[in-house]
Specification:
- 29% of the residues are buried.
- The chain has eight helices and four strands, in the order H-H-H-H-H-H-E-H-E-E-H-E.
- A hairpin with a 2-residue loop joins strand 2 and strand 3.
- Helix 2 (24-45) runs parallel beside helix 5 (89-113).
- Strands 1-4-3-2 form a four-stranded antiparallel sheet, with helices on both faces.
- It is 46% helix and 14% strand.
- The protein is an alpha+beta fold and 246 residues long.
- The protein has two domains: 23-141, no CATH class; 144-246, Beta-Lactamase (2-Layer Sandwich), CATH 3.30.450.
- It binds heme C.
């Protein structure tokens, strides 16, 4: 009898557990990651144009990239970038800081991307993403951080190396067989340098276009002069990592 009641109770409660609302910081961090991706997409959509040696001014002003980031964000989420009235202070401050970071990076790279006569200029989505994340981290120090990282055996730029937590999620979760594609990890009450934080990690995978640089043969030089990782289509290429300090 008791067993039947327990069974009945568990059937009642399990679906509710899975329907528990996402934590506020999880929703915020997911939105921030989407905005970060929305900005990077502007650069990747314009990569061929950026690499064109015949055109001087590329028309990729900081205002253009910010405006297009908002368009991409709205397409991805269905809600407006400027619609932050209902959001908390940290959300509003972070989104403003992200736009300012994009603005600053794009202002700095104008001479580089507008140089006529040069084809490949080394300005890639991942380089843009790193520069934006660096600007963002310094603006939001001690509050929120964004980083694009990768598994240790794949990481190109030492600045993007995973920390212990990131490494654990990359290796034990995202690379484990049976990990659901695109499933993120949100961890509450982790510790970073003595501070309690919430952390989000979102996996990213190599598509066909990534393999020119990250694919095979392993060790061969790509267009950037870097060594190819030997990655294969749909391999885990890296992750967006967000820290929210409490
Ligand atoms: C033209 C060559 C090229 C292409 C194409 C390319 N990457 Fe990269 N990628 C690089 C370089 C160079 C870096 C180092 C950037 C830096 O300095 O931070 C990098 C960095 C990264 C990083 C950050 C971690 C690290 O290794 O430093 C990730 C994640 C990543 N790439 C994933 C991808 C994915 C996913 C794609 C396809 C959507 C892609 N890349 C396409 C060259 C490329």
């Amino acid at each position: 009898m008791k067993k039947t009641i327990l069974l009945f109770l568990s059937v009642l409660f399990i679906p509710q557990i899975s329907l528990l609302a996402k934590a506020e910081n999880e929703v915020f961090a997911l939105d921030l990651a989407t905005a970060f991706r929305a900005a990077r997409k502007v650069v990747s959509d314009k990569q061929t144009h950026i690499n064109n040696p015949d055109i001087g001014d590329k028309g990729l002003s900081s205002d253009f990239v910010v405006a297009q980031t908002k368009v991409n964000f709205e397409a991805a989420t269905g809600h407006g970038f400027d619609d932050t009235q209902n959001q908390n202070e940290l959300y509003q401050k972070s989104f403003a800081a992200l736009l300012e970071s994009i603005q600053r990076v794009m202002d700095q790279v104008q001479p580089l991307i507008n140089e006529k006569g040069t084809g490949f200029k080394g300005f890639l989505p991942a380089v843009f993403a790193r520069q934006v994340s660096e600007e963002f981290r310094s603006a939001m120090r001690g509050e929120v951080s964004i980083k694009l990282t990768a598994p240790k055996d794949y990481v190109r730029n030492r600045k993007n190396r995973p920390d212990a937590f990131e490494n654990k999620i990359l290796e034990k979760s995202f690379r484990s067989s049976g990990w659901e594609t695109n499933k993120h990890v949100f961890a509450e009450a982790e510790t970073v340098k003595g501070q309690t934080v919430d952390r989000l990690m979102l996996p990213e995978y190599y598509g066909q276009g990534c393999l020119d640089c990250h694919g095979e043969p392993k060790g061969a030089r790509d267009i950037t002069g870097g060594k190819k990782e030997g990655g294969k289509l749909n391999d885990l290429g890296g992750a967006i990592s967000i820290i929210v300090y409490n």
